[in-house]
Design a protein that fits this description.
With 219 residues, the protein is an all-alpha fold. Helix content is 75%, strand content 0%. The protein is built from seven helices and no strands. The chain has helices spanning 2-32, 36-45, 47-61, 69-93, 102-122, 134-161, 184-218. Helix 3 runs parallel beside helix 5. The protein is globular, with a radius of gyration of 18 Å.
């Protein structure tokens, strides 16, 4: 039991420590860009950074003895978001980062692995499988906000500061209509018919695995 507790707190320390290092590296990058506000805005809009922020919040909240129902929802969203982050990066974006920097390794590989282990073996809370749909709310809102908020409001500003990066006003290359033969139709086909169903299936698998692990721990 003492070993299990020691591993639990080691995971917590490592998650928070790596997230802190990533935050410092992000601030350093924004400062060195020469246009701190715009760079910080871009950094804040990345799904990767939002997912890692949720992981940090979830990890800290898990230390509290008082557990509320919405904690379970937050933990699930954090897990699915960080798994989506890692998966999409290594499938679609890894080629843009060669060699992979420490920051990218922390955000897309190290933290996702650490948090998945922590979630599966050390977080007792778990939602029933019928509430798996809750994990899809955040990604869908994020996807919609790219075209309803970020690009219409900040797209032109971002293009001014990043003229050589046509994907920046859409945050990610796979959100840029220009990268698809059929524009928005191609994007919606990819997101709604491919990525979201795969994310939902992955959520179901992870939730079933979590419920299985919980049962084994109790046995």
């Amino acid at each position: 039991m003492k070993l299990k507790q020691a591993i639990k707190y080691l995971l917590i320390v490592l998650i928070i420590l790596f997230e802190l290092v990533a935050f410092i590296l992000q601030i350093q990058r924004a400062v060195s860009s020469g246009f701190f506000f715009v760079s910080s805005l871009v950094i804040a809009t990345y799904f990767t950074n939002q997912s890692n922020f949720l992981v940090t919040v979830s990890t800290v909240l898990s230390l509290k003895k008082l557990h509320k129902k919405w904690y379970e929802i937050l933990y699930l969203i954090s897990l699915i978001n960080i798994v989506i982050t890692a998966s999409l990066f290594h499938i679609f974006l890894r080629s843009y980062f060669s060699p992979m920097e420490l920051l990218q390794m922390i955000l897309h590989t190290i933290v996702p692995i650490l948090f998945m282990i922590y979630f599966m073996f050390y977080l007792k809370e778990s939602l029933p499988l019928k509430k798996v749909y809750l994990a899809m709310i955040y990604p869908l809102i994020y996807f919609a906000s790219v075209y309803l908020i970020f690009n219409p409001i900040f797209g032109e500003l971002i293009s001014t500061y990043y003229p050589d990066s046509p994907n920046m006003p859409y945050i990610y290359p796979f959100f840029n209509p220009s990268n698809f033969d059929h524009g928005f139709i191609g994007i919606f086909t990819l997101m709604i018919l491919v990525i979201m169903p795969i994310a939902l299936l992955l959520s179901i698998i992870l939730m079933k695995l979590k419920l299985y692990i919980n049962q084994k721990i109790k046995a």
